[in-house]
Predict the structure.
Amino acid sequence: MTTKFISLSTAVAVVGTIAFAGAASARDQIRIVGSSTVYPFTTAVAEQFGKSGAGKTPVVESTGTGGGFKLFCAGVGVGHPDVSNASRAIKKGEFEDCDKNGVKDIVEIRIGIDGLVLAQSKAGPNLSLTRKQVFLAMAEMVPDKDGKLVANPYKNWSDIDAALPAVKIEVLGPPPTSGTRDSFHELYLEKGAEEFPSLKDLKKADGKAFDKVWKSIRKDGAYVEAGENDNVIVQKLEANKNAVGVFGFSFLEENLAKLKGAKIEGVEPAYDAISSGKFKGARPLFVYIKKQHVGVIPGLDKFVAEYVSDKAISKDGYLARKGLVAMPKEEATKVAEGAKAMKVLTAADVK
């Protein structure tokens, strides 16, 4: 007779899986966390899923992208979320945290495109900005006329360029835990910083020093952290006609009766401009699925199928009516195929 042995780690994993499966009855509702930008889209999908009879309407929480990944990556089991919304791709450190905590199989689904806009009250002065000007308005340290880095001296928009309104720079935006904040840095501040010859040279000579410049937002009150709830920013813009808010295009589109979007590099934030890439504040949006929960948390696979269906993410889908900019048809087809196959991310896929 041959005796077979299994390692302690394998035994623990098997026991953990059995325990998780046995505990599934403790939660029969999908739990979703993450990005406030993706929140309205996932909520719409959750409502459709509930109406279809495929399962209970999922619980969706707006925690911010970074906060969502922290919860999502904390472990496997009914005590941890099944899905995380994200307004940026998962970071290498987050992927490693997931792996360390036993979250081994993650499925990334790109759901569409969003424009990251700078919006203001319709009663406010018209703003037409370049990303270089946005960098000068927001960065903690900026180049002086000789290219030397100095503490940001600009108080009013007109201090940056006389053609801009003579009103105080006051930008309301998300905190560091938000994927929208990460996107603001990368799409606006990094690109704006690269417009300066001295900072271009710094990037070549010392990449880390360059990164510190564009990643550091001023702390003198010109940038106000307004929390993860973009609706709060909308309300504050209504109350202050000179303030500018940073959030996703969908929130601008929902509030066009009250708000307007600033032109960026001469282009207004609009559906076609974002879809074509003409609007330079465009970014992809994602949802991440914990594959280990599929088949254990009821309906998770059907929820994913609903999310990538034509009726949801096509140009004529119900998410487009919510402000999501659709991907090209070919790309959407690939996304749907990958989601159906539950293709998992590897370390090589993550930056």
In short: The CA atoms of residues 156 and 168 lie 4 Å apart. Confidence is low (pLDDT under 50) at residues 1-19, 21-25.
